[in-house]
Design brief:
4% strand, 46% helix, two-stranded antiparallel sheet, 484 residues, 6 strands, globular, 20 helices
Length: 484
């Protein structure tokens, strides 16, 4: 009898559990169903600050792909995509979650990353959807395009507002893998980005609408209100760990070991300056393997503009250096600097040369070089020797070229597309386009064409944007407002 009662009881329990809805079994009680700003911030930072990019290095004449024709290397590209809008949607969700959950300390970071991604988009294309962007959930699926000059003004205003929102009383954020929640360090990063944005607008320094010189000098001359980076420890950078999905992005990368080589003009630049960073960047060329690793003659490269067959022949002859093996053998290698102290110092040096601020351009310049070399663990004696060379010392009449050249060297496998944008803005360094492999009539493109999807789904607005910016149509040689 007892057995029957037990069986009936178990049957009743099974019937009760069988009455539950299937959806109830899909919820993991140990996992949050609420999107919290800290979880979103972690993901946003990983996407935004991974700035070690082989494609940017190839385009910027620092590396060469030797296995086939690379459209980036030979300047024959066409369209880019609107991928950063996906990242911006995450930023928007973080902002919404912060507001809904009463965590206003995340709002200045949302403004920072909003500025970060919109800057990326407008530098790529020119005019883009801005004021009507990210409103798909509201039913606005065909946003109008804002003018680039208006976008830049809004970016600057967002960064200024982000700076003002952070005080000494602002609590630390959670989920921050860059600054461990320290809001004062974020405040420095916000103002460093403002300086980058302002300098990128140097062609419009006299336009009263932007008040570029005043904005720049206010940041530099009012450190109590606008703190800046104090050293490499403030770099906005992504560190790597020997863990799944957290390793250096080119760890065990096959192309790095077999088809990518140093670009000759970049190697020759470093050799001409006796720049010991070459030993950190590159491996010895096989032809010169018997020479010491500290001998500049042990390194070589192939030209980014040369035909594929010509470069292959030189590679087979052992004339070209690969990248230093640490880039593909070391799972952590080095942090990926997205926005660093060295760049900030070069921006300040250029600001002095342009008359935006007072000060000593040479001092800022030397601090930038020193910061870059210290990043590669070069000792102070070697740095002093390097800076004492006449070819490295900043000279009147060549200041901008020398500043941008050093910024270019410091950007190797860091800073994303910044070296290409700086060359587009200043013309320095001169990118070689003389070889037989070149496309685009041996011209360096100025931009990327709009995505095909926009021509299909938002034709009216993208067509309006093209006509008002580019008289010859949507092409890679169109000159956007920023660099006119």
């Amino acid at each position: 009898m007892k057995k029957v009662i037990v069986i009936l009881s178990l049957g009743a329990l099974l019937l009760q559990s069988g009455c539950k809805k299937f959806s109830e079994f899909q919820t993991d009680p140990n996992k949050s169903t609420l999107a919290t700003p800290d979880l979103l911030l972690n993901s946003i930072e990983q996407n935004a600050f991974q700035s070690s990019d082989i494609t940017a290095a190839i385009t910027s004449r620092q590396m060469v792909y030797t296995d086939a024709v690379s459209l980036n290397q030979y300047y024959g590209w066409s369209r880019a995509n609107f991928g950063p809008y996906g990242n911006l949607r995450q930023v928007l969700k973080m902002e919404q979650a912060a507001t809904a959950q009463g965590k206003p300390e995340y709002i200045p970071l949302a403004k920072f990353f909003r500025a970060w991604y919109f800057l990326q988009l407008t530098q790529t294309f020119g005019d883009i959807p801005y004021s009507e962007a990210l409103k798909g959930e509201e039913g606005l699926t065909s946003p109008a395009y804002d003018k680039q000059e208006d976008i830049y003004l809004s970016i600057l205003d967002d960064l200024q507002a982000a700076n003002e929102l952070i005080s000494t009383a602002t609590p630390a954020v959670q989920g921050d893998i860059v600054y461990s929640g320290n809001m004062q360090r974020w405040k420095r990063a916000i103002n460093a980005l403002s300086l980058r944005v302002l300098m990128s607008m140097s062609h419009h320094q006299d336009d009263a609408k932007f008040n570029i010189k005043k904005r720049f000098s206010d940041i530099v001359n009012t450190p109590g209100t606008y703190p800046l980076y104090n050293g490499n420890e403030d770099n906005a950078q992504l560190k790597f760990y020997d863990l799944q999905s957290n390793r250096y992005p080119y760890f065990n990368n096959n192309d790095m070991q077999t088809t990518n080589y140093m670009e000759e003009t970049f190697v020759d630049l470093l050799k001409s300056l006796q720049d010991v960073r070459l030993f950190s960047f590159a491996d010895k060329a096989p032809k010169y393997s018997a020479l010491p690793a500290t001998n500049f003659n042990a390194y070589g490269g192939v030209r980014g503009s040369a035909a594929v067959n010509e470069n292959k022949t030189r590679v087979v002859a052992g004339e070209a250096s690969k990248i230093n093996p640490r880039y593909y053998n070391n799972p952590v290698n080095e942090p990926s600097i997205a926005l660093g102290y060295a760049e900030q110092q070069f921006i300040l040096a250029e600001g002095v040369v342009r008359g935006w601020i007072t000060g000593n351009a040479a001092d800022y310049y030397k601090k930038g070089v020193t910061a870059s070399m210290r990043f590669y663990n070069i000792d102070q004696a070697a740095i002093d020797t390097y800076l004492s060379q006449p070819s490295v010392q900043i000279t009147v009449g060549n200041q901008i070229q020398q500043i941008i050249t050093q910024k270019y060297i410091a950007s190797f496998f860091n800073s994303g597309w910044q070296p290409f944008y700086e060359q587009r803005r200043t013309g320095f360094p001169v990118f070689d386009v003389s070889g037989a492999g070149m496309l685009n009539d041996k011209r360096i493109p100025k931009r990327w064409m709009y995505p095909e999807s926009e021509l299909q789904l938002n034709q009216q607005h993208v067509s309006e944007a093209i006509s008002r910016q580019y008289p010859d149509g949507d092409n890679i040689n169109g000159v956007m407002w920023l660099i006119k």
